[in-house]
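INTERNAL AUDIT FORM
Audit reference: QA-55
Scope: verify that the stored structure record matches its stored sequence.
Auditor: D.O.
Record contents follow.
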Amino acid sequence: MEIDDAPSNFDPQDLSSREQYRRYRKRQSTSNISPLVGHSVSKFSEARLLYEGNNIQRRPNTALLLEEIKQEVDNFDTDASWKRRASIDSHAVSEVKFGDSLRQGVSHALKIGKHEDEALLEAGESTFTLFASLLDSALQGLMPFADLILRFEKACRSVSESIRYGSTGRHRVVEDRIMQQKARLLLDEAASWSLLWYLFGKGNEELPGNLLVTPTTSHQEACRFVMMDHTAQLCLRIVLWLEGLASESLDLAKKVRGSHVGSYFPNSGVWHHTQRYLKKMSGDPAIVQHMDFDASTREVAQPILDDKKQDELLLEDVWTLLRAGRLEEACELCRSAGQPWRAASLCPFGGFDHFPSVEAMHKNGKTRTLQAFELESGIGHQWRLWRWASYCASEKIAEQDGGRYEMAVYASQSSNLRRLLPICTDWESACWAMAKSWLDVQVDSVLAQFQQARLEGKQFGEDINGSSMQGLSSTASSENWPCHVLDQQPRDLPALLQKLHSSEVVHEAVSRACEEQHRQIEMNLMLGDMAHLLELLWAWISPSEDDQNILRPHGDPEMLRFGAHVVLVLRNLLDDDMKDAFKEKLTTVGDLILHMYAMYLFSKQHEELVGVYASQLARHLCVDLFVEMMELRLNSSMHVKYKLFLLGMEYLPFSSEDDSKACFEDILERVLLRSRETKPSKPVGKSSDVAEEHRLQSLQKAMVIQWLCFTPPSTIRDVEVLSAKLLMRALMHSNTLFREFALISMWRVPKMPIGAHMLLSFLAEPLKQPNFDEDDASEDLLEFEDWREYYACDATYRNWLKFELENAAIAPAELSSEEKDRAAAAALETLDSSLSLLLREGNPWLNVAHDRTYDPTEDMYIELHATAMLCLPAGECMLPDATSCTTLTSALYSSVSEDDVLKRQLRVDVAVSSSDNYCIEVALHCLAVNGDGLGLHEANDGGLLATVIAAGFKGELNRFQPGVTMEISRLDAWYSSEDGSFRSPANYIVKGLCRRCCLPELILRCMQVSVSLAETHDLKDHHNELIELVASDEYGILHLFSQHQLQEFLLFEREFSLYRMEVEEESVVDT
């Protein structure tokens, strides 16, 4: 149904000669100001729109409408005034040079337009929030899904009404047409929701036993038939749906205008002009000579033209009311207009409602009027006579070229589609006409068969008394109904819908409307073809074949929203038996639609709405969706990230035993895992570029820990237990990252390892008041404390190095004493903190010597996987290829003895990374033995695999290019079984590797600082402590040094000794 234009301010006293009998007409508005401006029409009334006519052609895609509007704008007269051009295209204003006052006026108009755009955008997007809120309530069991459908319908109508009638009349043409189209589409969506409720949400009603009479009546039998027959019940619901839409349209028109269909002066249907004419003269044979209602048919004449037009207006309103299912109002209209005879022809039997519905039975009550009629004449006899009379009236009116609405009124009472369809110029009216006519014919046929069977039973009894009822029996036969009327009726529902497509049967506008999206949706709902409906929805909203980005829908967002909610309603509303036919489509295609809608909401910064839809996805899709959202918002504000965290905690179980449902724990694990994956990097050249690339990647890796540091909402169950789990998992993952960050931060540069310090900042507050048992996380806490101390030492060293480099850039003579003292103080702080870590007693740094590992009876293997970049001695990145990988494999084998290779079954695999051509993947595999994988690992150095990988990391491979190092960015170690399946992490290997790499580097840095102090003649005892630390067997440090590191250590010792000798010589000379 089309909603009529909002008229200008209506004055009931100012009526034209035509309007004196009719207060409600379809008139073009003379003003753009809506009568609703100034007061709210709904909760969405902030949205405003300039309303312009109702001649909008629906299109399946908004892009088509935009193209048409663009052409329309391009064709506007280029010589129009500047004000008109400003309202069409704001950009054109800046291109025309006017006076300052004109520019101020244009600027003011543009500001107003901007505010209106924002208001309209809020009104349009409010449907997304409202629908999500309603759906969430239904999923929580606070609202039946049948009621949810009605709430959806109401929401669409409210927003459409707000957009359509909330305009201030200052929109540009393009915006006006777009918003008007949007309001029209929202009404179409409301109609689809309404149909869905009538078909699947309304429920089945029982005949009220207290209203049944015996013997039965035609209306009782008609209602019983419609309840029992599926096809008749479907027709009934379609008719009720279409009449409901028309009634809603009338109510809205009355709300907007204040007047409505049927507002007439008393006796306005009397032929006053004809009466006056007959009093003066009566010689014209074309004018009726009598004033009775049958005069036109009897005399084959017409009343005066003004009276005929007045009758046509009256019949148009009668038709409108009948189309909306308002039979009583139509009859009352006829009576008030002075035509009670017409009211009697519309509703015979004293106003008895013959519509075959339970509502009509309740409305009629337990009356015996119809029963009295039919006891005398037979079941349905009076009904058929009235139907026949209506049919004859419609044919007679058509033959005499009478009023088209009068013809349609009586044709609708007799299923005469040939006379009824020409008046139906919209899809809804044509569908209503066919469905109602088909329903009436089905009822006629059943009543005729019922009467025939009843008469045959009486015939046997009456024959004994010598009487016969053959005449009445022949009257009851359905064969007396005109064959061409029966032929007009569809055979089944697909045939009915096919007729709507045929321009030869229906109006061209009706067949054209069948191509609209919501008309296709509604026809599929009528047919119950949900599989095809889901395919249609996906075809409209899915990306085109050329678009590889599935997360960017090309369809209308409103259609995307509608499709997602239809999927969820069908899943929760229909019984399993009904869903069996399209269960696969509802699962697969439904998940695709839901996933796309969730990503659309996410792309529009509606993160808080995503959870209710994501929770309904299949497990893998839900996990993928959350992981992608969390990755895309990784660098967003804390508020945005916390919203995503709350979605996962509130809408998903934290952990689940149901494999079909996602849980937030799986999502977090996937996010942590993906954060450590190698990201494709840009080609790097100098060593500083490699270091900076590693620094930036470490920051992204560290950011994911924040997801584990958020506080769960207090509304969920076991909040303290979940908080403890999150914090313990944060500790474990942080330690993993600390190990990797330590290996990529060996560069002696002033820049801090931002990834590690970001981790420390994230965990600082949660660890102040840990909410878990420290005994359960003692190992992770100890390692975390070790890393915190290590990075504190690293920070003091880099602080000193910064001061040292700044001083080196200044001539020694220009250095101030403050600058020198600042560098000396930083050096002493570096030595103190580093020696504190190195000389710890009883608890060495990253100690794994007493960690008991596996002790199985079967063979156990250990594996180490590393991702690294190859760097040349000059600091440039080396692009790996198959040859270099083969050479590196051989070099890694040669880093240990042949006996170890054979006894431990060592296997080395090196290949270019599939995700980054500048990286290599190194996989080491060997047999676990006592002391290295089994029992206690007393060596505390990571064992054989750590020895092999450390040689590559330090660039001391004998059979590889001299000086080429492996810059490791990811490192993992596992225990594995003989079949290759992983069992658990082998952290002792990675910790031992970190000891092999970090401790020698830390000692060398201390030597560097010590030499720097010696250069300033500041000789401290720290140097001797470092020498003893490396040389002593008590600390077990010497075997961690490589040959090159020992050489560097000796060079620092030599420099220190030289400076000390200089100091001693100077002291001797001074003496």
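Auditor finding: record pair retrieved intact. The chain has a mean pLDDT of 81.
Action required: none
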